[in-house]
């Protein structure tokens, strides 16, 4: 009974992880930009823009890495602070926030988009951009354009909505963040290895564990 007592709670834990993963299965992306070729202070600007008729959506940013400095500016309705979590909405023309950064190293953040844009029929898309500007907003750092861009396409002509990802100026790298449901599969694999090892140890000992006293 000992194996059953230990295995059942482990299965329940794995199922809990799976349920949590299913609830959190919103696509998430990790963005990086390498500024090793540049020095000095600059402005990293984040904007989430859309036409007035676009499906409401929110861009949620977190897991910031790099030499972020104080905040430069933000629009009304932006919530949170770097290096914690920041949320921007696309309604009312959109929103933005801008942060001072010290160039010379790697910057990164995670972003995901909340809202029913993928399942709501619409003709208006939304656009989220991350861009590096000089300290006076007089020009771009590196090549012209944003280092990361996300276009949120709504449901249209029966085709589900989707997120189109790009790096317009070629400086940024965008990768998918594994969904938590992947942790469930990994957890099951680990549990399987543990149980196989226990079974082999029992077989190698030449006898089965006592039954009845561990109930």
Topology:
Elements (H helix, E strand, L loop, with lengths): L1 H22 L4 E7 L6 E10 L6 E9 L2 E7 L4 E2 L5 E4 L4 E9 L3 E10 L10 E9 L13 E6 L8 E5 L5 E6 L3 H25 L10
Antiparallel strand pairs: 1-8, 1-12, 2-7, 2-9, 3-6, 3-8, 4-7, 5-6, 9-10, 10-11
Helix pairs in contact: 1-2
Can you walk me through this structure?
This protein is an alpha+beta fold and 215 residues long. It has a domain at 28-177. Helix content is 22%, strand content 39%. It has 2 helices and 12 strands; from the N terminus they run H-E-E-E-E-E-E-E-E-E-E-E-E-H. Strand 10 (148-153) and strand 11 form a beta hairpin. Residues 1-24, 182-191 and 207-211 have low confidence and may be disordered.
Largest sheet: 6 strands, antiparallel
Query: Helical element count?
Result: 2
Q: What is the overall shape? A: globular
Helix and strand content put the structural class at alpha+beta
Helix-strand pattern:
HEEEEEEEEEEEEH
The beta-strand count equals 12
CA(first)-CA(last) distance: 6 Å
Average pLDDT reading: 80
Helix content: 10-25%
> Spans of 5+ residues with little confidence (pLDDT < 50)?
1-24, 182-191, 207-211
Strand content: 35-45%
Rg to the nearest angstrom?
24 Å
Strand order of the largest sheet: 5-6-3-8-1-12
């Amino acid at each position: 009974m000992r194996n059953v007592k230990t295995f059942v709670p482990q299965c329940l834990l794995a199922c809990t992880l799976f349920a949590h993963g299913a609830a959190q299965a919103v696509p998430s992306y990790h963005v990086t930009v390498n500024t090793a070729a540049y020095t000095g202070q600059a402005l990293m600007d984040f904007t989430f823009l859309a036409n007035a008729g676009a499906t409401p959506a929110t861009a949620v940013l977190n897991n910031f890495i790099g030499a972020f400095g104080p905040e430069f500016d933000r629009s009304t309705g932006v919530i949170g602070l770097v290096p914690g979590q920041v949320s921007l909405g696309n309604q009312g023309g959109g929103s933005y926030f801008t942060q001072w950064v010290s160039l010379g190293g790697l910057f990164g953040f995670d972003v995901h988009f909340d809202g029913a844009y993928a399942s709501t029929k619409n003709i208006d898309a939304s656009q989220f951009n991350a861009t590096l500007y000089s300290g006076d907003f007089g020009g771009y750092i590196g090549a012209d354009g944003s280092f990361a861009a996300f276009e949120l396409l709504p449901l249209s002509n029966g085709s589900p909505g989707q997120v189109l990802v790009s790096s317009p100026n070629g400086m940024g790298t965008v990768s998918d963040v594994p969904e938590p449901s992947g942790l469930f599969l990994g957890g099951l694999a680990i549990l399987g290895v543990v149980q196989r090892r226990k079974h082999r140890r029992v077989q190698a000992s030449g006898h089965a564990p006592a039954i009845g006293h561990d109930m």
